């Protein structure tokens, strides 16, 4: 049995576009569920999505608990041994309150990769496979979120390239979710059921392509 | 822990053309070498053969995919364990031009990344000029470059020029080739790789042809003369000795002329000769005797099990010679080369690929 941890934000949690964190797609609709269905027997998929999760920031408004870095280590320890950790974060780092360029968000992802490597929660204490997934770019119209994400739209288009540079530099797997899915017009930064389906299927193919012994 | 900005070297260069030679990493060359040797492989196999981690292979393959050099196939399901995804070279990923100056003609080919001929032309030989290393080479090369559609020109890996020893006119071959290469490159702005024609033919056979899976063998090229090259551990030994024997097609031509037979078909690329009967058998006997003598000489130092015979002569003739050689020397396996119709030109075209994409020794 191989184990995959899907570590993300509201788009891993399955938050329905235009809704609140309590409005959620069903387990089988969310991309980790689709991934589990596609990979089939022999794979255990752990879904770990939290709305508002950042890469490395304590959120001054939503709270320190949104910091993806502080929760990652206990989470890895809980679920070790892990064969693969998929990280899909970044959108929340673009909130105006953090004032980060896309390249800094990628640096945050880099911290998480370093943390995973350092902890080595893979089989027999090895470094697990790590896959960075860049979120699909935000749409221009993000409704009542405009002020929270002031000028984030442009930066969200740069995430894929910056994440890929970081992934190449640290030699981990990379996938651009924007290549198979888009955000839903209802709020402009959440993905709908179809996008979850597309992403889950595409990631299953990427996971298989890793080349498992 | 390192929190410096990441090094964007590998992927920041997203031009649609080919990356500069100097930035291609050793590991990328390793992956491309494996793909050139095997028509299809998987990331798992690459990892096993190179000792690189799955994540490192993933980064390399992604960068090669983005550059269009490597293509991903459909996942193969149905075996035990997860499906495997085959990787192949993308035939349209790179092109190369090969020019070979022969006894009578110059062959020009344009090949794709898997060695398939896209264009082939046969021209009269260029004439050498005084005061320069070349004269009509430039026109020949320019006409070859024009064979390539505009859209694909930026994917041209370079031009390979295969020259016979006699063109160096007694000069040191290596110095002559270097000077010629520099002169053409300066005027044309395209990477030009020059090599001895027989060595080039061996390298073509080793990259795309019958010798693809062989690491040690004796290579014979049957042209106007018979030439030999020793290949050990994938390395073609390009020695300085005058290794050619007057038992080639020129010798057959003399026999046929003496009998008043028509000899022109010997030199064309049509792949068939008229039935010359016993004259050909007699010539083949002498040819095989010479090949055996060469093998005997080499055999004092290296055990040779395989012979590759490459030629633009008809395949049926080459197979016949191989059969007879095997009959005369049972310990030898003789294989006719399968790079037709211009093995030296295709060999020349393999030079830019091996220089730009492969690790040396493969």
Automatic annotation (TrEMBL), chain A:
Keyword field: Hydrolase, Plasmid
Span of domain SGNH hydrolase-type esterase: 6-197
CDD domains in the cross-refs: SGNH_arylesterase_like
Gene3D superfamilies reported for this sequence: SGNH hydrolase
Pfam families, sorted: Lipase_GDSL_2
Domain of life: Bacteria
InterPro entries registered for this protein in UniProt: Ester_Hydrolysis_Enzymes (IPR051532), SGNH_hydro (IPR013830), SGNH_hydro_sf (IPR036514)
Molecular function per GO: hydrolase activity
PANTHER family (alphabetical): SGNH HYDROLASE-TYPE ESTERASE DOMAIN-CONTAINING PROTEIN, THIOESTERASE 1/PROTEASE 1/LYSOPHOSPHOLIPASE L1
Protein name in UniProt: Hydrolase
TrEMBL record, chain B:
UniProt cross-references to SUPFAM superfamilies, sorted A to Z: Actin-like ATPase domain, Winged helix' DNA-binding domain
InterPro entries, per the entry: ATPase_NBD, ROK, WH-like_DNA-bd_sf, WH_DNA-bd_sf
Similarity remark: Belongs to the ROK (NagC/XylR) family.
Protein name, UniProt field: Sugar kinase
PANTHER family: BIFUNCTIONAL UDP-N-ACETYLGLUCOSAMINE 2-EPIMERASE_N-ACETYLMANNOSAMINE KINASE (PTHR18964:SF149), ROK (REPRESSOR, ORF, KINASE) FAMILY (PTHR18964)
Keywords: Kinase, Plasmid, Transferase
Gene Ontology terms, MF aspect: kinase activity
Pfam entry (one): ROK
Record bears the keyword Kinase: yes
Organism encoding this protein: Roseibium algicola
